[in-house]
């Protein structure tokens, strides 16, 4: 496996010096946001991770290698290229073997982070059970991955382009903890709350690190979702954004958008319909997640070192 992994100098140094590393995904760059805001966001998020005392590892597929950490030039190339493949678990072997340029989703970032022995991962939102999934069976591979891969994902919950209730049911069935950071309700990405109550509210990063350590010490396979609400000042008006989301979902149906194209299509339409306001919210929440995720990574690293 090692022959496929290529570490950036920064990540290699972090490994030697036992510094906490935070994985970052690349689909959010290539398919989640337009250029140049995508590259700008990626750089700022990496810097936040450094400022918090951890080391960022943006993960992507290039030249037949799984890159663990990108250089500045690679990040630029990645955010500004046409035809980057959105790589889920099923696509990974082909994209690596054919040396294509590939963006890792939550699923593949978790897979590659585990290969590189990184247990913390920060992003914006996870995939889930899509609305109408009882007919389309469109359920993101992210949920299966959370069930089996030992990586914790810090996100701002899930968007209501998804069926949040079914997404929570699925995660419960699969035994994935969803931990609310200073909230007892699942955040809905653009807004701070939803009607879905979580089973566990954590007050501090340290409580989250303790819970993660206990889960993995107990041999309970799989990841966890750490749901961190968007900051109050960046949150969008609930009825406004929900109206826009409903419209985008309808348009996707009319345009026969399905499968892996669904999420990027919906994100793009929501951005257009909100005149870019959804993009501002998206960027703000990812940055906030980077801060919280890095602090959890630091806390977890200390606990693992001390074996307490
Ligand atoms: N949600 C976002 N932005 C994103 C994604 C989700 O707000 O960029 C991306 C993530 O990479 C996630 C993927 O893993 O979409 C889910 O895609 P799908 O629904 O096709 O599984
Ligand atoms: Mn899907």
UniProtKB/TrEMBL annotation:
What this protein catalyses is:
D-ribose 5-phosphate + uracil = psi-UMP + H2O
Q: What class of enzyme is it?
A: lyase
What molecular function terms (GO) are annotated for this protein? Answer: hydrolase activity, acting on glycosyl bonds; metal ion binding; pseudouridylate synthase activity
Q: Which residues bind substrate?
A: 86, 106, 140-142
Task: Cite the entry's keywords alphabetically.
Answer: Glycosidase, Hydrolase, Lyase, Manganese, Metal-binding
In the UniProt entry, which residues are flagged as the active site? 25, 159
In short, the EC number is 4.2.1.70
Please name the InterPro entries in this protein's record.
Indigdn_synthA-like, PsuG
> Biological process (GO) annotations?
nucleobase catabolic process
Q: Which cofactor does it need?
A: Mn(2+)
Cofactor comment: Binds 1 Mn(2+) ion per subunit.
Which is one Gene Ontology cellular component term of this protein? Answer: cytoplasm
Q: Which residues bind Mn(2+)?
A: 138
Which family does the record claim for this protein?
A: Belongs to the pseudouridine-5'-phosphate glycosidase family.
Give the record's subunit note.
Answer: Homotrimer.
**Function statement:** Catalyzes the reversible cleavage of pseudouridine 5'-phosphate (PsiMP) to ribose 5-phosphate and uracil. Functions biologically in the cleavage direction, as part of a pseudouridine degradation pathway.
Spell out the protein name for this chain: Pseudouridine-5'-phosphate glycosidase
Q: Which organism is it from?
A: Salimicrobium jeotgali
Could you read off the lineage of the organism from its UniProt record?
Answer: Bacteria, Bacillati, Bacillota, Bacilli, Bacillales
Q: Which gene encodes it?
A: psuG
């Amino acid at each position: 496996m090692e022959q496929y992994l290529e570490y950036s100098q920064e990540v290699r140094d972090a490994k030697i010096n036992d510094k906490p590393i935070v994985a970052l995904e690349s689909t959010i760059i290539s398919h989640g946001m337009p250029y140049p805001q995508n590259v700008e966001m990626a750089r700022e998020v990496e810097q936040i991770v450094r400022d918090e005392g951890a080391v960022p590892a943006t993960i992507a597929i290039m030249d037949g290698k799984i890159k663990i950490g990108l250089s500045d030039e690679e990040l630029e190339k990645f955010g500004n290229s046409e035809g980057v493949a959105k790589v889920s678990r099923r696509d990974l072997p082909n994209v690596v073997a054919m040396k294509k340029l590939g963006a890792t989703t939550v699923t593949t970032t978790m897979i590659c982070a585990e290969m590189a022995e990184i247990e913390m991962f920060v992003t914006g939102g996870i995939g889930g059970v899509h609305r109408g999934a009882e007919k389309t069976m469109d359920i993101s591979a992210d949920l299966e991955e959370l069930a089996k891969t030992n990586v914790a994902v810090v996100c701002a919950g899930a968007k209501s382009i998804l069926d949040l209730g079914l997404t929570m049911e699925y995660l419960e069935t699969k035994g994935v903890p969803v931990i609310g950071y200073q909230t007892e309700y699942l955040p809905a990405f653009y807004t701070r709350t939803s009607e879905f109550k979580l089973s566990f509210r954590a007050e501090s990063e340290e409580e989250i690190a303790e819970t993660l350590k206990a889960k993995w010490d107990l041999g309970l396979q799989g990841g966890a979702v750490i749901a961190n609400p968007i900051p109050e000042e960046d949150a969008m008006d609930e009825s406004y954004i929900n109206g826009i989301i409903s419209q985008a979902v309808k348009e996707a149906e009319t345009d026969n958008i399905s499968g892996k194209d669904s999420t990027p299509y919906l994100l793009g339409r929501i951005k257009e319909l909100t005149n870019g306001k959804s993009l501002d919210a998206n960027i703000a929440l990812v940055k906030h997640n980077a801060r919280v995720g890095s602090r959890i990574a630091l806390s977890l690293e200390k606990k693992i070192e001390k074996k307490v």
